[in-house]
């Protein structure tokens, strides 16, 4: 297939690279400097990348970035043709997703929201899980591309449902990690061996995939970004905004949002979101700066 891949960040670059490896004809574009990807054509604008594409795939930072890539003066909309597909693997507002889909649908173009989970390592190893919203026919058409980049596709429902489910899942990740971070910090203060504490957690009913993934980094005090704090913080704001739109209260998440605000003030926004642990350790008089 001919694919325009827009966004070569932590997730987008390895995703696009895996499409190239699978033998697809890929054109790439990135907001910051023109970035080269071996085997792909580098476009000067989203519109140019999308010329003659069968599928336009976006993986950018936030809702505003998706809107700019699609609908700005040099955006994808200029190159849309009937029968094309637009796939969005960014994590953005579900209500905005519906608006964007309606706009491209008017041009005879299908929209599929396909945010991912699996972090940087999953993107690099083609082990992502795609959380999909869209009509059955375009989702089926995309299966070879999903297979090139991931290990599992969960078709949640209609357009917008993929984004909705992704926000709900990330809400759980944020709260589970905060619970772990608080317990880990209290344990440290009480002199509990960190390795033994994690062994206990993973052997008991509170076993967690979040802890399993993050624990090796926590034990090394390594907060190099797999899922940057600034992006999780962005998602938390999306969760809170979406909850407000739908008259849902999220009191625990409101508290976690404060932790992210204070961690950002510390200058840690480009570290992994696991660096929020360092704030708790700092308050407890336990730790230095994250690395």
What's a concise summary of this model?
This protein has 291 residues and is an alpha/beta fold. The protein has helices at 12-21, 46-50, 63-71, 94-105, 119-124, 136-141, 143-149, 161-189, 194-203, 209-219, 229-245, 251-265, 276-283; strands at residues 2-6, 25-29, 41-42, 55-58, 85-88, 110-113, 116-117, 128-133, 150-157.
Question: What are its keywords?
Answer:
291 residues, alpha/beta, Rossmann fold, N-(1-d-carboxylethyl)-l-norvaline Dehydrogenase, domain 2, 2 domains, six-stranded parallel sheet, three-stranded mixed sheet, 50% helix, elongated
Characterise this structure:
This protein is α/β, with parallel strands linked by helices. It has 2 domains: 157 residues, NAD(P)-binding Rossmann-like Domain (Rossmann fold); 120 residues, N-(1-d-carboxylethyl)-l-norvaline Dehydrogenase, domain 2, CATH 1.10.1040.10. The chain is 50% helix and 14% strand. The strands form 2 sheets. The protein has a 6-stranded parallel beta sheet with strand order 3-2-1-4-5-6, with helices on both faces. Helix 8 packs across helix 11 and helix 11 packs antiparallel against helix 12. The model has no long low-confidence stretch (mean pLDDT 96).
